[in-house]
Amino acid sequence: MTIGVLREGGKENRVALLPEHIPSLVKKNVSVLIESDAGNSSCASNVEYVDAGAAIQTKEYILNNADIVLKINPPGDDELPKGKILVSILNPLTNTALIKKLAGWNVTAFSLDMTPRSTRAQAVDILSSMATIAGYKAVLVAASKLPNFFPMFMSASGTIRPSRVLILGAGVAGLQSLATSRKLGAVVEVFDVRPAAKEEVQSLGGKFIEVEGAAEDASAGGYAIEQSEEYKKKQQELIQKHAIQSSVVICTAQIPGKKAPILISAKTVEAMNPGSVIIDMAAGSGGNCELTVKDETIIHNQVRIIGNSNYPSKMPADASKMLGTNYINFLDLMIDNEGNLNLDFEDDILSSTCITRDGEIKNDRVREIISLEEA
């Protein structure tokens, strides 16, 4: 069995495996191929990979010789492991063109962003791992851009009031943002459509903002769902009231497979205090702020709006460490102790994350979306 790790392109600084992850695979008689310089941006050199037991190769060699190819971001046309196994983060609910291409090239593709929300699956839950980093980093960025202190200061020069932070979405990223903001001394309010999040928010020292009448769906696996127009109107009014009183707004609210809900309108931005900061981590799926521009920072009416949905890439060493552990745990489900491939599709994690196999699209939700697109 041979596993290959490709180098990420563009502004991505993470890598799927670090040298520290290699020995556990080597012990199983698994050969590991690393594309040259794949770990440079994550502070891992080619020499360290070789010392750990891997071999450095070109992308072309890996695609031709690896049985399983690991990648973080969706592969480009020159990175498709035709007829092989691909483990990546494919965003299959929106990246349907790629999914059809993978099926056409007979790629057995696993997308780890489709990992089920269960206790057993936590060890391979890449979304939660990366959301932890994103929530932490977003607060540090906000604090560095804000023209105010986060904590309260009392001195001979007077008293500085603590900054007020509003967090939209109490998932993993939102809760980490809450915890980090509180450690820095801010007063924090958190909004979420799920009443079940209230206890977690309060346990971390935040005030929970609740809009009555939220719809819930047990089949959504703990994720937020689309709400009624009446609810959205009440939500908009309440969020605007709290946003204009806040120094920082951190946006994390997303709905899998759908455009992120607009929670901060242009009108709200224009009512915020000059110097305020909005960090929109939902920028990749449209953004929670009406004015967000993906991967850009804009200033509107003296309010800074930062559209960054990939903060984990800003902390590549620890992000890669966490990612690599998730990948290793996932590979343990696929490879036995003798290094043989053992794909058991009765396993709920493998079945949930398998998107294409045997030239077909296997995931029901993805297949339904593609059918609607083609209708």
Mind sketching the topology for me?
Blueprint lengths: L1 E4 L16 H5 L4 E5 L10 H7 L2 E3 L1 H7 L2 E3 L14 E4 L7 H9 L3 E4 L14 H20 L7 E3 L2 E3 L3 E5 L3 H12 L3 E5 L6 H6 L3 E3 L19 H15 L4 E4 L14 H6 L5 E4 L16 E4 L2 E4 L9 H19 L13 H6 E4 L2 E2 L2 H11 L1
Parallel strand pairs: 1-2, 1-4, 2-3, 4-5, 5-6, 9-10, 9-12, 10-11, 12-13, 13-15
Antiparallel strand pairs: 6-16, 7-8, 14-15, 16-17
Question: What's this model, at a glance?
Answer:
With 375 residues, this protein is of the alpha/beta class. Helix content is 33%, strand content 17%.
Structural summary, described in words:
This protein is of the alpha/beta class and 375 residues long. The protein contains twelve helices and 17 strands. It has an eight-stranded mixed beta sheet with strand order 3-2-1-4-5-6-16-17. The chain has a seven-stranded mixed beta sheet with strand order 11-10-9-12-13-15-14, sandwiched between helices. Strand 16 and strand 17 form a beta hairpin. Helix 5 (126-145) packs parallel to helix 6 (172-183) and helix 5 (126-145) runs antiparallel to helix 10 (316-334). The model is unreliable at 217-222 (pLDDT under 50).
